[in-house]
Amino acid sequence: MRILIAEDDPVSRRLLEATLVRWDYEVVVACDGTEAMEILQREDAPHLALLDLVMPGMNGDQVCRLVRERARERYIYLLLLTAKSHKSDLIQGLNAGADDYLIKPVDPMELKARLNTGRRILGLQEQLIAAREENAAAGDARPASPAPGTTRPSSKSCGGSSSAPSAKAGG
């Protein structure tokens, strides 16, 4: 799976890249927020992105906000990385559209677990798209009304009253 790393610090960027390559990710690198946004706007954009919160050009919050404003068919899972540990920074990042947030220095096992969560979410989205496409393709073949001899399911809610007579004695 392809993943974007947007990190202005060359040492942090290289460490992340080496770790992700070891985990069999195809890594795309951006050195600032503007470059990250350009990559995420492409048709072949990675669907996982690690974004440093504080970068030149455009910060991670701004990238998140722009990605969400330009919603696409396929979701991009955005994970912010930052040395800031104040709850207000976390809230700001999540409100901007980030899916998750990690505080530097990043623990590799925590990063792996959070990326697995992102992959699981992206996989579920792929399944939903496939199901929608199957339903759309099969839509013309489905009858508009029930087949003869069948009935529609009752709209009666549990515990609600029914106008149909009860089969119970005295009912």
Corresponding CATH superfamily: Response regulator
* Strand segment tally: 5
State the end-to-end CA separation: 62 Å
Our count of domains comes out at: 1
CATH fold title: Rossmann fold
- Tell me the strand percentage band: 5-15%
- Oligomeric state, counting identical vs distinct chains: single chain
User: In DSSP terms, counting alpha (H) and pi (I) runs of 4 or more, how many helices?
Assistant: 5
- At CATH level 2, the architecture is 3-Layer(aba) Sandwich
- Uncertain residue ranges: 145-156, 160-171
Largest sheet: 5 strands, parallel
What is the H/E order? EHEHEHEHEH
Kindly report the spatial arrangement of strands forming the biggest sheet: 2-1-3-4-5
Question: Helical percent range?
Answer: 40-55%
What characteristic shape results from the CA principal axes?
globular
Q: What does the average pLDDT come to?
A: 84
CATH class annotation: Alpha Beta
Structural class based on helices, strands and sheet pairing: alpha/beta
Determine Rg (CA atoms, Å): 24 Å
